[in-house]
């Protein structure tokens, strides 16, 4: 397997024998080193505190991944002071040098992708291919965002003249210090994407990984450190609960926040950053309740593949996961039969370290309980047609936080068509009018991704022009609503799925959001 071979979230048709061999060797080495201690990093120095966050694997809750040293409020204040000081020099560094360091960090991430992916399998419970995709996406995000800076000449542009001796140019300048709060589900890609965009813009960054995935995100810091990023420009702090994140948002030296997570927390961040003397940028991605539509003319095999992959990849713990499915009444019986057959064939549940496993655990016990509640409520108002078991009753799943992938026939009025569960649960209903089905889907407060399967151009056009979501797919067998990639699909949330200017990650307008505009006129 060539070192240049790239793993994405789309289906692969390559011989992966060598890749799997290399992964197995790396995983074996990784398991032998578990249980170590990892410090927070403040101003380039290791912070080893008495308080630690013990991170256990969701695959096997007795398996200790590592002990992460938790930063206090006083430690965080020290980090902000260092970040503010370091930003002055970093912001004045030529943008070409910032680009060079970022590209070198991307190369380092690619070199370490096996190590990063193996850690992610243990720490988050992703299967190996999705973990490798996450690591690969992180590196591609750095490269793509660095290319944006180059193509825009560092976001420096000459403007017009009102008189012959007037010279004006428009520049984008950094805000200062960004608090970056990363999620557990894409700890490398999303953490790296937010961090790299802020750094390229000349900001310094304090990165807080999710308590559920601290180690993977720590690899972002290591890659930048080894790429030559000056001390204090990027710092990483570990927490134990939501308090650290709240301190980061409310700190007076925080000049902006990049966050991926729940709508509740994201809206709180927006309100906090707009409650002071002036507004500060809040770039937030806040989840989804994503719908797909299977029309009368659809290729049912292709539709079933796309729907199953998007509903059950990463155990449904993707902001872009398919959770609502509208099927035309004329093809409903045949499609449901195909959907269940596809799920039975594709979705194997177990230890994600095993090559043949498609779906690992959910992230923690709370996620299991949330999933079981959704199943119980579905039984009361509809019908479970696939899955629906409590896997805690089965010996082979007792060690970890496993959830049974579930499909239920439900009325579109049930809360299963409105509330985000972040678990492997797919609600299905019939429709007779695509216009009406889209209107019903638009009632949800979220608007992240959506997909359609149809052979009719007019139905694709109707869908594209009517659905209230930022990332749209038509006839995509590799993922009805999932699988965005840097520079290929911009990942932009509408309505309750996003915030800020509405320009998404993976897209061409992302980096500029971490900078503010300044017009400079010089009379000669």
For this entry, give a set of tags:
Aldehyde Dehydrogenase, Chain A, domain 2, 14 helices, 5-stranded parallel sheet, 7-stranded mixed sheet, 22 strands, 524 residues, Aldehyde Dehydrogenase, Chain A, domain 1
Molecular structure report:
The protein is of the alpha/beta class and 524 residues long. The chain folds into two domains: 18-54 and 67-286 and 500-516, Aldehyde Dehydrogenase, Chain A, domain 1; 290-485, Aldehyde Dehydrogenase, Chain A, domain 2, CATH 3.40.309. 37% of the residues lie in helices and 20% in strands. The chain has helices at 17-32, 73-92, 95-111, 113-124, 128-151, 189-200, 214-226, 243-250, 263-273, 300-312, 332-346, 365-381, 434-441, 457-466, and strands at residues 36-38, 40-42, 45-47, 52-56, 64-69, 156-158, 166-174, 177-181, 204-208, 234-236, 256-260, 282-285, 290-294, 322-328, 383-386, 406-409, 425-431, 446-447, 449-453, 471-474, 494-495, 515-523. The strands form six sheets. It has a seven-stranded mixed sheet with strand order 15-16-17-14-13-19-20, with helices on both faces. It has a five-stranded parallel sheet with strand order 10-9-8-11-12, sandwiched between helices. It starts with 16 loop residues before the first helix and ends with a strand.
**What is the helix content?**
25-40%
Low-confidence stretches: none
Total of helices: 14
Q: Which architecture of the largest domain does the CATH hierarchy give at level 2?
A: 3-Layer(aba) Sandwich
Kindly report the CATH topology of the largest domain.
Answer: Aldehyde Dehydrogenase, Chain A, domain 1
Strand arrangement across the biggest beta sheet = 15-16-17-14-13-19-20
- Full CATH superfamily name of the largest domain: Aldehyde Dehydrogenase, Chain A, domain 1
Taken from the alpha-carbon principal axes, the silhouette is: globular
End-to-end Cα distance = 60 Å
Mean pLDDT: 95
Total beta strands: 22
Q: What integer value in Å does the Rg equal?
A: 23 Å
Percent in strands: 15-25%
CATH class of the largest domain: Alpha Beta
Q: Tally the structural domains.
A: 2
The profile of the biggest β sheet is:
7 strands, mixed
Class derived from helix and strand content? alpha/beta
